[in-house]
Amino acid sequence: MSFRIRVLVAFLPVAVVPLVVFGLGARSVARERLTEEYRTRVEAAARGIRQDLRRRGDDVDRRLVALRDEAVADNRLRRALVGVRAERPYLLDYAGGAMRLAGLDMLQLQNNRGRILSSGHFRNEYDRFAPGIHLLLQVVPDRMALVRARTPDGSFLVLARARTFRVGSQTLGFAGGMTLDTGFVAALAADRELRVALITPHDTLASRGADSTDQVVAQVVVPYIDEAAFGGLAAARIVVSHSLGALETWRSGLDEWFRTAALISIAAALLLALWVSFQVSRPLAQLAARTEAVDFDRLDAEFPIERHDEIGALARVLHGLMSRLRSGTARLREMERRATIGELAQQVNHDVKNGLAPLRHFFRHLWRVADQRPRDLPRVVEDRRAAVASGLEYLEGLAANYARLTTAVERRPCDVEAAVRETLAGLPVPEHVQVVHHLGSGIPAVAADPIVLRRILENLLRNAVDSINGTAGVVSVTTAVVPGENAVPPGVRITVADTGKGMTAAERDRAFEAFYSTKPGGTGLGLTIVRRLVHDLGGRVAITPRDGAGTAFVVELPGSRDDA
Fold this sequence. Notes:
By secondary structure, the protein is α+β, with helices and mostly antiparallel strands. The protein is built from 14 helices and 16 strands.
């Protein structure tokens, strides 16, 4: 990539990133503020709808109370109810007259057995038995519900209340209401930017057309009774929503201005970058052309040093370099003569380095593997054996002694008990610490590298011994069988516990972090290596606090399928 391109690439983020941050921030803030404002308006409208419905319901209830008082005092109604045939027509027309007198759109008189005695909105419903609407209205909040009432020509929706009263020995109930239509729904929300929809199990009445961008919604739930297809109480919803179309329009305008500003900024950045790069690259290109012409046969190149900026400093450096190059040419020719003599020494040096190079690379690689992937150490040694042997054979054949100490790394069934005993045998233990082991019976072999298994045990046991600092204590190693499931062979649980100072919850949470240590001078890598080695073997390791004091490390390793 050329210098000019790099300058252009460097200028573009400087010009564009602030615009992007500003645009995204403005969009986010505007959306949050406007959405919150819309939500407040929608919720306020929903509260107003609840109050309006309650006010309308109270108006219906006052009219029903007036009708109830008149019905209790009406002797003709009383006579019709006790079966006087001459008053039968009066009873059938009673609800119609009372409905018109009270200014209601729906009125029904029923007894407590569900028999319709008189219906003002559907006269021919008399003597029909149906569940008492007035009884259902008694159990809903505010004794108010939306009722879909039947008529000879269909049905209509009313906001209904109910009143129960006694005439003689009979308990009767009025269920009356006023019609709800699209105009009523539209009047529920005074804000013209709001959309109001009445959704019932039967149909939907909406005050405005649907808007797919409606996203801010609140709803009022009202009990619902369908007289035409009576199924008991249901629920109707009055949904209030606010369109986010204005917000989307504002965002579109902001995006358009943002794109315009971004294009202008990019163009300005490109022009400025071209000018800067030209001011820098042209003198550099001149210096490069003069430098390219320099060789040992042409040492007469000159570099202008009249500039006082960084390019002038570079020209002065090149000018001084040319002066030193001229003075060194004579010495160089003398050195060429001596170099011929030194070629023999260089050849000897080269041969020695050829022998040392495999050893040098081997040990560098060996140290790196030992630090980063200790379990791969035997394999690396085995892979490099031939190169090491060749180098050592060239330098007196010292490779054979080390090669005999290495073994090939392979995953095979390992005896856990033997590994525990061998580790304990080589573990340095202070006099104040007692190490005991409790090996379970029937412990299966695990599929592991013996070196890796011993490395896990050595790290855990050294940590356990170090945790008992200055006082008498006990370190115990316990093995047990982990039952297998389905085709999985039984595994082994190894518990290394101590009676030391224990670990806090915070220390247990960070115990397996790299470079975290609570011991003075500790590296913080022991438990990290343990966890990695255990996971490489397909097992798991956990820390368990002990009652009283101390800590227990629990390692579970899968069993060997060959052994199973």
